[in-house]
Specification:
By secondary structure, this protein is an alpha+beta fold. It is built from 2 helices and 7 strands; from the N terminus they run H-E-E-E-E-E-H-E-E. 26% of the residues lie in helices and 37% in strands. Strand 4 and strand 5 form a beta hairpin.
Length: 120
Amino acid sequence: MNMKMKKWIAIFAAIFLVCIGAFALLRHFGMQGTVAVIRVDGEVYEKINLDTVTVAYDMEIRTEFGYNKIHIEPGSISVTDADCRDHICIRQGTVAEAGVPIVCLPHRLTIEIEGGYIDA
């Protein structure tokens, strides 16, 4: 292998290592939420501080739009049952980070994790 080839391999290896390091830092120190905000028809239904949850529990939401069963556990939240036809809200799985909402359009339900504190 000539010197030019070794030089380019070293440059690409360094770039790769910098990218891996940046990814690890952003993953560790990135946007992390602590409060799950549950909304029905755009109105806040309940706020749950996921940092204070010590034992997993289920919560049922029954409205004129339909039924959803929400599973809350330390640091994460998910929809485990619903009477909507498409069940997209169930298939979205568990959410533990801010920026990825759970949405059930037929029931007008959204669950978002937000950082910070709970307003009084």
